[in-house]
Design a protein that fits this description.
The chain is an all-alpha fold. The chain has a domain of about 50 residues. Helix content is about 65%, strand content about 0%. The radius of gyration is 22 Å and the shape is elongated.
């Protein structure tokens, strides 16, 4: 009973903002995308960070390309830049490597890594559904 009430209030508020049905359709599409992300266990924080910081990162990238006349060497032109690049690559690669190695070591039986809907391929076979 609470869900329909929230849906009606959100739809009225979305329509009342600009008076167009386009806003209501956008709200519904993003609601469906959010529901699917929840069902597939996609973390919300990286998506929000990407949406919020994406424009600023694009502007900074364009500024760097303008300063360097289109050369990508600006990103590896100093020791500090190389150190930060290596640190970022290591931080991104390390969790995946540990996760895959842990799953392979923990379960040697065939069919250990599950591909059930809502669970990612690297989860161990624990017999429990994702929270």
């Amino acid at each position: 009973m609470l869900f329909p009430l929230i849906l009606v209030i959100a739809t009225i508020g979305c329509y009342g903002l600009n008076g167009t049905m386009f806003d209501v359709h956008v709200m519904l599409v993003f609601g469906i995308v959010g529901y699917l992300f929840g069902r597939l266990d996609v973390p919300i924080a990286p998506v929000v960070l990407g949406l919020v910081l994406g424009k600023m990162m694009e502007q900074s990238f364009r500024q760097a390309m303008t300063i360097s006349d289109g050369s990508l060497r600006i990103f590896v032109g100093s020791n500090i830049a190389v150190t930060l690049l290596v640190a970022c690559c290591t931080a991104m690669a390390a969790p995946g490597g540990r996760r895959a190695a842990g799953a392979a070591a923990a379960c040697r039986t065939p069919g250990c890594l599950t591909t059930a809907p809502g669970e990612w391929w690297w989860r161990r076979c624990t017999g429990r559904r994702a929270a």
